Amino acid sequence: MNIRLICCAALIRLEMLYSIELALSHARTLEAVSDTPQLDCQLLLAHLLQTRREWLLAHGEHPLAQHEQASFTRLINRRRIGESVAGIIGRKEFWKRSFKVSAATLIPRPATELLVDTLLSRFSQEPLRLVDLGTGAGNIVISLAAERPAWQLFGLEKSLSSLEIARENGKEFAQIAWLAGSWCASLAPESMDIVVSNPPYVRSGDSQTFRRLAFEPAMALKAGVSGLDAIRIIVSQGFDCLKPAGHILIEHGNDQQEEVCQLLQQAGFSEIETFRDLQNINRAVMAIK
Ligand SMILES: C[S@@+](CC[C@H](N)C(=O)[O-])C[C@H]1O[C@@H](n2cnc3c(N)ncnc32)[C@H](O)[C@@H]1O
What we know:
- The chain is of the alpha/beta class.
- It has helices at residues 3-17, 20-24, 37-49, 53-58, 66-80, 85-89, 113-122, 139-147, 160-169, 207-212, 229-241, 257-267, and strands at residues 91-94, 97-100, 129-133, 152-157, 176-180, 192-197, 242-251, 270-276, 282-288.
- Helices cover 41% and strands 19% of the residues.
- The relative contact order is 0.10.
- Mean pLDDT is 94; it is low at 5-15.
- The structure holds S-adenosylmethionine.
- Residues 106, 108, 112, 133-136, 139-140, 156-159, 162, 182-183, 198-200, 219-220 line the site of S-adenosylmethionine (SAM).
């Protein structure tokens, strides 16, 4: 056998040896950045091969082609420097659906499902008008639309690229109007029954959080020195755009509940109610005009 044939055979053999099982062993290299390195690794490989995690686990011997190995290494390297799996694959599950996300949108968080859960448990099918301020990928307002067809909904966002993603995610819901704007500035007085928002609430000096969330848009996070700049505006403008007896529901940071309650009280809201998320952390406040 000539030497070239031997080398070729060896290369083919090497390629054959790079199996799904071997690729998934890269999970070890993600331990420093992730609490779920194995899951992350499986999701990235499943995304690359356009298959399901279950299929990967049942086909550990399956070989990866050389171009697949190279692409997988690139995905793993992105995760290794801290980009989230959702950011890399461009999708995130929230409530009961999968949402397209991009570098312009905040990646929806499980804690924010508290807002959806609270509204669905308090308000039934009767028609009402609700605005979601800072809609991001549209995850809150779209989740509500899917469960409450009679509601008239507005997804409002300042970032036009984010609004574009939200519109695409919600294209099957004619009951949602997508509005570009800054908080309630463009909304008519006393036009809404409910104002809901997961606004930016990270303090500008919280460099540790900004480092951890370096791949997320600053506009979705930054809220001045106190972390309350956006909430302060939403509380005051929200009061004006709510109908009498309308409700406001706001997500906030771990240690901001007391201050948010004070802001609501000062603005004239009453019946202030506080909520904890699934991790038992203070996470949202609701009040009535
Ligand atoms: C924390 S993110 C929430 C995204 C989404 N609603 C969610 O819960 O996953 C805050 C959102 O507010 C938007 N935003 C920031 N400033 C705004 C403003 N002045 N008016 C409207 N939206 C704004 C950001 O672009 C971002 O999409």
